[in-house]
Amino acid sequence: MSRRIIAALVFAFVSTLAAAEATAQNAAAPAPRKHTDAEYAAAFAYCDAANLAESQRNMLRLMLDNIERSNPAMRELRPAMEGIFERYLRYEVVKYDYADIFLDEFTVDELRELTRISQLPVMKKFLSKQQKLVRTGSEIAQKRLAPHQQEIRAEIQAFMLKKAAEKAAAEAEKARRKSAEQPAAK
């Protein structure tokens, strides 16, 4: 990934975190609950069986590591970003959000089955390796795309130019139609 793209992503990330910090008072209030206590209990049991809290901590750590790796100057911001993550993104803060996602996608019986499956040795192993698999897959994608950076940039630029031309043509057509209608309205 080019340094410009990485810098833009880091800027967007830091801006998002700053916006989250600015709305801390609103975020502190618990969100209204969408499901029953029994439904949440089933979702939390799955989250525990799948070790979601640890997975999330690892994912946030990995995100910070990637930011640092892509832009070493960001290293000095790590303590501040870790503090923001701890306040707003730690599992205990977002667990109802995760539970809502699972409850929107699965029935309570399905969550109970997922919980049972998550306790099988092979699934425990899979869940413990999942982030490594995702990270390795991401590294493979980066390695495969790196030699084609110029081609990719050119293709994206051509796509953006085409979209801009289409938008301009649509706006010109809209203006032409509007001007054609105006004399008839008089």
**Multimeric state:** single chain
Q: What is the strand tally?
A: 0
Q: What characteristic shape results from the CA principal axes?
A: extended
The helix content is over 70%
Structural class: mainly alpha
Q: What's the mean pLDDT score?
A: 84
Straight-line distance between termini: 57 Å
By DSSP (H or I, 4+ residues per run), the number of helices equals 9
> For the CA atoms, what is the radius of gyration?
24 Å
Listing every helix as H and every strand as E from the N terminus to the C terminus, the arrangement reads HHHHHHHHH
- Bin the strand percentage: under 5%
Low-confidence runs = 24-28
What is the gist of this entry?
The protein is an all-alpha fold and 186 residues long. It has helices at residues 3-22, 24-28, 37-49, 52-70, 78-88, 91-105, 108-118, 121-145, 149-185. α3 crosses α6, α3 (37-49) runs parallel beside α7 and α4 runs antiparallel to α5.
How would you describe this structure to a colleague?
The chain has helices at residues 3-22, 24-28, 37-49, 52-70, 78-88, 91-105, 108-118, 121-145, 149-185. By secondary structure, it is an all-alpha fold. The chain has a domain at 3-119. Helix 3 packs across helix 6 and helix 3 (37-49) packs parallel to helix 7. The chain is extended. Residues 24-28 have low confidence and may be disordered.
